[in-house]
Amino acid sequence: MKEKGKVYFVGLGLDPREHATVESLIALGECDRVYVSGLEADDLKALRPYCRRGAIAPVPDGRQDAKIREIAGAAARGRRVAFATLGHPFYAGDAGSKLAAACDARGVEWTSFGAVSPMGVALSLAGVTLGTTTFGMQAFEHRALVSRRVKPNPTWPLAVYFLSVPDAASVRACAAALARFFPAEHEALWCAGPRFGTRETLAKALSRPEKFGRRDVLYLGPTAAASTELGRTSAHQVVGRGPAAPEWVRS
After folding, report:
1. What pLDDT was estimated at residue 235?
2. Which end of the chain is more exposed for a tag (fewer CB within 10 A), N or C?
């Protein structure tokens, strides 16, 4: 029986040499081919030790559509391939979303690994600066919360991102999952997508599923007490994880 291929969407953070997480680098090392977009020569040099010899293939800006067909086709033929960008592939232009659609059309399995990127992009869009006192940030695709494969830490900032328009049942399940960790009156800010700039309580933000759009990002800040406590650490430990991080990472 022919082995199924797979596509890994890998976010390398705002600076791959500092922000790429362990699970992101492990994912790259498992791939036969690593397609990279928007990386400088120094970033590529830093990634090479984690990838198989000759696996890295830069994606020129003007050839993204052709490369999307190439990546999806390679996975359909049984190869394990990665598409890696600064930030996160679903926010660094539209190539990530197009590739996900191409994978779905071919029945190719895919999963995403975020570094700092989903949270970093959300905060950048919200006009919030990532400082040296920011500690323990997290970002999950909403389906990971619905399935309860991940458990958010209620004291840390959280970004919930939507790669597709969710149905009402999915939004209710996401609300129920978040209600286990965050109070309904917790303030939330839509940081990207159709509802960009809207500030609401968590309960209100999740009460109108018909308003949801693709690429929406809901940001929940830490409590005031947690912000004060974490601010004293002067630690720079910014962490975000994709929805399919290995079990040892999520536990």
Report:
1. 26
2. N
b/e map 150-176, b = 16+ CB within 10 Å: bebebbbbbbbbbbbebeeebbebbbe
Mean pLDDT score across all residues of the chain: 75
Residues spanned by the domain of 134: 119-243
Domain final residue pick, 84, 115, 146: 115
Domain termination residue (choose one: 61, 86, 115): 115
**Domain count along the chain:** 2
**Residue 222 or 235, more confident:** 222
